[in-house]
Structures are given as C-alpha cells and as structure tokens.
C-alpha cells in the first residue's frame, strides 16, 4: 500500500544493480526461480517480471538471507525463524531503496512455511504435532512413531497458494 505499480516497475528494472551497491559482497546469478543458495553463496533470480511487484520483494528477501549469513540450520523451526528474519531485513533494505513490501505478501510467504512445517511435524500415526530430533527425522512424543522428512532448504516456491 502507498506504493504505485509504476514505482515498483521502475525499481524492479534496476533493482539488481542497486542491490549490488547495497550488498557488494553478494553474488547474483540467473536461474529458474528466486533462491538463496548457501552452497554457492549466490542469490539466484529468474527473469524479472516488471509487472509483478513481488519479484522485487523476492529479490530483496533472498538478498537479506545472504546479508544475514543464513548458511545452515538444524531444524525446520530454525528455518522458519530465518525466513522471518530475512523478511524483516528485506523490509529494511526495501526502505533504503524506496520499495515498500506488502505485509500481506510477507504473511502469505511465512504461512506457506508454517503450513509446510505443520505437515512435516504431524505424526502420521496419531496426528500429534511433534518435535524434530535431527535435520531429517521427527519422533512423536505421544506414540513414539519416528518418521523422516526430506532435508529442508531455503529454495521454496513462494506462490503456491495464489495462482
Ligand atoms: Zn527465504
Ligand atoms: Zn504419534
């Protein structure tokens, strides 16, 4: 709110150049989707859609992961916390560059992670939400079932809920 589409269009066009000055140590590389890759220390971005302001927001968000040094996490919950921190930082960087990120967009993205976390942490046997015991395993404190999950990552599709 308060930011017109034309402003966002203008920003998206030159945003990567601006981010390179704000975050000179961060590498940017073209790829299939927005992503922070701790392995290559690169912010990956697809073709920027100038009509979609959320592309600028994604770019700010992934850059925030890079600036915050988000390289490793041990649990899904830790990843969720990092996602939240990255959005906070993205809002700050955006403010410096005159880009206002829609708070609803941030909540949507975090909700996507929360839903994902809820699914992973729900016991397949009794349905109780349980604690993670290591990067790829959960154990139910109610019925003692253990189950494994795929390893978590920063690259997640952000717009699953809205088509
Ligand atoms: Zn993220
Ligand atoms: Zn259970």
What do we call the CATH topology of the largest domain? Arc Repressor Mutant, subunit A
Structural class based on helices, strands and sheet pairing: alpha+beta
Enumerate how many helices there are, as a single number.
4
Poorly predicted parts: 157-163
CATH architecture assignment of the largest domain? Orthogonal Bundle
User: What is the 3D form?
Assistant: elongated
CATH class of the largest domain: Mainly Alpha
Distance between the termini: 21 Å
How many structural domains?
A: 2
The rounded Rg comes to: 17 Å
Bound molecules: zinc ion
| Strand-residue proportion | 5-15%
Would you write up a description of this structure?
It is a single chain. Helices cover 45% and strands 13% of the residues. It has 163 residues and is an alpha+beta fold. The protein folds into two domains: 5-121, Arc Repressor Mutant, subunit A, CATH 1.10.10; 124-152, no CATH class. The protein has a three-stranded mixed sheet. Strands 4-5-6 form a three-stranded antiparallel sheet, with no helix packed on it. The longest helix is centred in the middle third of the chain and has 22 residues, at 76-97. Residues 157-163 have low confidence and may be disordered. One zinc ion (ZN) binds next to helix 2 and helix 3. One zinc ion binds at residues 61, 65, 83, 86, 154.
């Amino acid at each position: 709110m308060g930011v017109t589409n034309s402003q966002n269009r203008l920003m998206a066009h030159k945003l990567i150049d601006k981010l390179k000055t704000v975050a000179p140590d961060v590498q940017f590389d073209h790829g299939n989707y927005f992503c922070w890759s701790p392995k290559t220390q690169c912010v990956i971005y697809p073709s920027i859609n100038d009509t979609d302001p959320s592309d600028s927001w994604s770019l700010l968000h992934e850059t925030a992961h890079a600036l915050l040094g988000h390289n490793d996490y041990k649990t899904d919950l830790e990843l969720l916390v990092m996602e939240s921190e990255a959005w906070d930082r993205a809002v700050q960087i955006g403010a410096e560059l005159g880009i206002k990120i829609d708070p609803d967009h941030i909540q949507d993205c975090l909700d996507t992670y929360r839903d994902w976390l809820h699914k992973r942490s729900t016991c397949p046997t009794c349905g109780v939400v349980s604690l993670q015991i290591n990067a790829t395993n959960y154990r139910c404190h109610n019925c003692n079932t253990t189950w494994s999950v795929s390893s978590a990552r920063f690259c997640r599709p952000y717009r699953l809920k809205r088509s």
